[in-house]
Design a protein that fits this description.
It comes from Amycolatopsis carbonis. By secondary structure, the protein is an alpha/beta fold. It has 14 helices and 23 strands. A hairpin with a 4-residue loop joins strand 20 and strand 21.
Length: about 450
């Protein structure tokens, strides 16, 4: 039996095309997915990004689905959140072909049940892997059919209906699509709005010729920052490869942290539904739960990862959720993540007042943070235990292990240390009152981590 553990990840399937992923294997994944959801739905919606391998692989997946008697609705080129829209609005299970910001040689599959409900290791992905490893059973009935549908216009209209920008003052916004799917969706979503878009790298190109389509890496937003300052824009927005995450810079070209965006959007959502619940993962700034509570909301802390966020949103009926990684989840969007909707909220908030974005977001940026710092270690458990031992007996220190190791220090500073699931890394995030305090605490922890 093949061992697929190297490409079946916690939330998706991802690997090097031609080495780990090919049409034959993807066809089997399609058939296994059909077996998983056959009792729930007669059809599956499939979309793909701009990578050279995506059309062929998505077609192979469709063959696997139809081989089990289910029909396929193909929506072709789309962003990941556009696929979630299709899954939600049609109430169909879905599959998206993308490797997000990974290099061109990679591709992958993100799957969901009807209503954009995630399929991860604990919610069907392990079963799919086992079925493919053991051999997909043949289906003797009638093969399903494939139809095509364009949902881009409906997706754009749905988003614009959720955020009213018609009364915004005119804005000039630089958008860096990173040669990813934002170049496909942004022109339609923003059509007719009082927003002048200055496009960067809108040409769809899965080789990412200008920079990696991962805006969380500071080196990938340098061009955006320069262009915002050059043209005197009100803000800049960068999308990742499959355009489900967005990153914002202000009129000075300075990054606005995803925690500040989470707090800003949370306040707007709470204005529509006072007293609502807002989910935040444990690496977002402690300013997020503070601001949510100050505006009458109920903050709920979760582990990192979209499956945990979405599960907690379903359990609590939360109106919104945000992560430090610039994933933003909306109850009005089937609890799925959509960077485009978050961007519309930021621009609406900016356009409703006369001040610059830097002034608007200042109230939502209360603390200094390190960002994620990775350390390669030979023994994750031993190094984490050493850090825990170093802080456990200090007066006033609080420790929890909801997700890795979180240490709260007297005076408000804190850090989280988490192991990577796929690499021999420990990931450190630190927050404190100011930059000097962040750097001092970071140095203290890294001395222990790196031995």
């Amino acid at each position: 039996m093949p061992d697929l553990s190297g490409i079946v990840k916690a939330y998706d399937i991802r690997g090097v095309v031609g080495e780990q992923l090919d049409a034959s294997l993807v066809r089997d994944f399609g058939a296994a997915f059909a077996l998983l959801i056959k009792a729930e739905s007669p059809s599956v919606v499939i979309g793909h990004d701009m990578r050279d391998s995506s059309p062929q692989l998505s077609a192979a997946f469709a063959e696997g689905v139809t081989s089990q008697g289910l029909d396929v609705v193909s929506i072709g080129l789309c962003s990941t959140d556009e696929l979630y829209f299709a899954s939600g609005s049609m109430n169909l299970p879905g599959a998206m072909f993308t490797a997000s910001h990974n290099p061109a040689k990679y591709n992958g599959i993100k799957m969901c049940r009807a209503g954009a409900s995630p399929v991860g290791q604990d919610t069907g992905l392990t079963e799919i892997r086992d079925t493919v490893e053991q051999g997909v059973p043949a289906f003797e009935g009638k093969t399903g059919s494939v139809s095509e549908r364009d949902v881009l216009g409906d997706y754009a209209a749905y988003l614009r209906n959720l955020v009213d920008l018609t009364h915004s003052r005119p804005l000039k916004i630089v958008v860096d699509a990173g040669n990813g799917m934002g170049g496909h969706t942004v022109p339609t979503v923003f059509a007719g709005l009082p927003i002048e878009i200055v496009p960067m790298y809108f040409e769809l190109d899965g080789t990412f010729p200008n920079h990696e389509a991962n805006p969380l890496d500071p080196s990938n937003i340098v061009d955006l920052q320069a262009k915002v300052r050059e043209v005197g824009a009100d803000a800049g927005v960068a999308f990742d490869g499959d355009a489900d995450r967005c990153f914002v810079v202000d009129e000075r070209g300075e990054p606005v942290s995803p925690s500040a965006i989470t707090a800003l959007v949370a306040v707007r959502e709470l204005a529509k539904e006072p007293g609502g619940t807002v989910i935040h993962n444990l690496i977002t700034s402690k300013g997020v739960p503070e601001i949510v509570a100050e505006h009458g909301g109920k903050p709920v802390r979760t582990r990192v990862g979209h499956s945990f966020i979405k599960a907690e949103m379903a359990r609590t009926g939360a109106i919104f959720g945000g992560e430090h990684s610039a994933h933003y989840y909306f109850r009005d969007f089937w609890r799925a993540d959509t960077g485009m909707l978050a961007a519309l909220h930021v621009l609406a908030a900016l356009g409703e007042q006369d001040g610059p974005l830097s002034a608007l977001t200042q109230d939502f940026s209360r603390y200094a943070a390190s960002g994620e710092i990775n350390s390669t270690v030979t023994d994750q458990v031993a190094r984490m235990l050493a850090v825990k031992d170093a802080y456990a007996d200090k007066p006033g220190v609080e420790i929890d292990e909801l997700d890795g190791l979180t240490v709260q220090l007297p005076g408000g500073a804190w850090f989280n240390l988490r192991p990577s699931n796929t690499e021999p890394l420990l990931r450190l995030n630190v927050e404190a009152a100011d930059r000097a305090a962040v750097e001092a605490l970071t140095d203290d922890v890294l001395v222990i981590v790196r031995g």
